[in-house]
Specification:
- The complex is a heterodimer of chains A (208) and B (99).
- By secondary structure, chain A is an all-alpha fold.
- Chain A is 78% helix and 0% strand.
- Chain A has 7 helices and no strands.
- In chain A, helix 5 packs parallel to helix 7 and helix 6 runs antiparallel to helix 7.
- The longest helix of chain A is centred in the middle third of the chain and has 37 residues.
- Chain A starts with a helix and ends with a helix.
- Chain B has a single domain, classed as Orthogonal Bundle (Arc Repressor Mutant, subunit A), CATH 1.10.10.10.
- The two termini of chain B are 12 Å apart.
- Classes of the chains: A mainly alpha (208), B alpha+beta (99).
- The interface between A and B is medium-sized, with 17 and 21 residues.
Chain lengths: 208, 99
């Protein structure tokens, strides 16, 4: 006959199996910190290149030809940051999953990626539409809002803390859309500072 | 006390079966490979436990083809859900009664 310890172990086992089979836990806090740093560097480069150099705020440039050149550079910069951040997240998750003895591309990882991709791809297309209509001012706000929604959608399949990060990003996005002249500042706050804060919190909580 | 023990279904005594039921309780369907990855057991071991649970009609099987390869998906039946929930309740009661 089993004793109390066995029953408690059974319950713990059930809970851990339920969690392991629904949540992707190989996400590393460090990748959040690094993503934040890339974003801050990117925001600084954008500020130096596009804002200060011209002595005027981007969406005030009157020369359309010149403006499209600037926007193309800005998009390239943004894509570079994105690739760096995602690449780092994948590399660090690979390392973490190896030490945890988990397979990285497990069913929970697949679900996480699919659920993040839906709002992200929607946002990407929406932003391209904004750009094509010349609504450059909403660039910072739109990226933050869609990224925030992607995080909230993904939070069901990984650490729950991602949900609060998503809510913060949406708030930043709304502020960036209303106070367009401070768009880049809110963008740096959301993608830069908030990622770093979140990364440190997660690192201390789960990887110590 | 005795009655609680009777409620513990003997089909859930093994760790692997408990694992299968736990993962299927929170996932609509899972294929053989996914179950194997989560439970970290051998093919033969998993197959025999799945067969046993299937016989009890606690889980169901959906067979299909993905890229011409056979793909078997498992899901929890209503009966299985009921039995599993009763099992958890019984476990909780047992722990509480022994405190």
């Amino acid at each position: 006959m089993k004793n109390e310890q066995d029953y408690i172990r059974d319950i713990t086992e059930i809970r851990s199996m339920m969690e392991r089979s629904t949540k992707f836990i190989s996400l590393s806090g460090l990748s959040g910190i690094l993503a934040g740093i890339y974003a801050l560097v990117g925001a600084y480069v954008a500020y130096r290149l596009f804002f200060v150099q011209n002595g005027t705020v981007l969406y005030n440039i009157t020369d359309r030809q010149e403006m499209y050149g600037e926007i193309a550079n800005l998009v390239i910069l943004a894509i570079t940051i994105l690739v760096l951040a995602v690449g780092t997240a994948i590399a660090l998750s690979l390392r973490k999953s190896k030490t945890q003895g988990e397979k990285i591309w497990n069913p929970t990882a697949r679900r996480l990626v699919i659920n993040m991709a839906i709002p992200l791809v929607t946002g990407g297309i929406f932003i391209l539409i904004l750009l094509s209509k010349g609504l450059f001012g909403f660039l910072a706000g739109a990226t933050l809002i869609f990224y925030g929604m992607a995080l909230i959608n993904a939070s069901k399949f990984t650490f729950e803390e991602i949900r609060s990060l998503g809510i913060v990003q949406i708030i930043m996005g709304l502020l960036a859309s209303y106070f367009i002249e401070y768009g880049l500042l809110f963008w740096a706050l959301g993608f830069g500072i908030m990622h770093i804060v979140y990364g440190i919190v997660m690192h201390l909580k789960y990887e110590k | 006390m005795k009655s609680y023990l009777d409620e513990l279904h003997k089909a859930f005594e093994s760790r692997v079966r408990l694992g299968i039921m736990s993962t299927l309780a929170v996932n609509e369907t899972l294929d053989f490979t996914a179950l194997k990855e989560f439970l970290e057991v051998t093919d033969g071991n998993l197959a025999s436990h799945l067969k046993a649970l299937e016989k009890e009609e606690f889980i169901g099987v959906k067979k299909s083809f993905v890229d011409r390869k056979p793909n078997t998906k498992y899901f929890m039946t209503k009966q299985g859900k009921k039995a599993f929930e009763a099992h958890i309740t019984a476990l909780e009661k047992l722990i509480r009664s022994q405190k």
